[in-house]
Hints:
The protein is an all-alpha fold.
Amino acid sequence: xxxxxxxxxxxxxxxxxxxxxxxxxxxxxxxxxxxxxxxxxxxxxxxxxxxxxxxxxxxxxxxxxxxxxxxxxxxxxxxxxxxxxxxxxxxxxxxxxxxxxxxxxxxxxxxxxxxxxxxxxxxxxxxxxxxxxxxxxxxxxxxxxxxxxxxxxxxxxxxxxxx
Length: 163
């Protein structure tokens, strides 16, 4: 994901980076644990988006609103994943309150593009989106956060246990 690459490249180094031994050159870059965590995170995000999509369907939203809500939940979920995968140093607040210019640019650009996609009629028509109500945006935001919450809490717990 280019957005992740830009954000992670601009990230400040962990203050304890020089205290850790180097990675074993024989160790693969991607191991089963990392793959399992990534697949689990993707799966829980998918389930959260599906639940939001089903809620919108059951709540009687139009097809365009349902489609826009699902898309918003996916985009917001991807932004939450970027935040969740940032370095685990320090408190949970570091994920949000130590942003870089790259993070501002990616998050701001994605939110502006999402808003244009849903609320600018010419663009929304391409995707067959209908404008979302504030409550529906809240549902998309809640679904996106719920999909990655377990991962953020796991990283915070591991960081606390290691300290």
